[in-house]
């Protein structure tokens, strides 16, 4: 086996190892070379027999030496990036102490988002209930109209009273 083959296979194995054991790579700056295919190709780790090359060269080598070709290499890169993302976020959150003010700001943003979401659902519900009333009236069937009114009043009653939640 030559140096090029070893380098490509070692890079692929490194990606698989990062994806399966992200905690081993917490302190290293692995996120930088996982962000793009080009930075992956330029990654160098002589201690692990991984040497940099151009992206086209890496694609060609991966297609020749790996089962699944470069698609498998890129999939391993994306898996490693996803596996490391929570670890990196946790580390950066630990470096900066959160204050109550930060918590309040985050909660206000979440409340605003939820209020907007509720507004969207309310508009959708009102529109569909109005359409149901219109269709029921178009039938000129008193049973359909009464059934529609009964079901809509039950829905409004359900939404009117908040559900009781228990704190476990």
TrEMBL record:
It comes from the Bacteria. This is Uncharacterized protein. It comes from Pseudomonas grimontii.
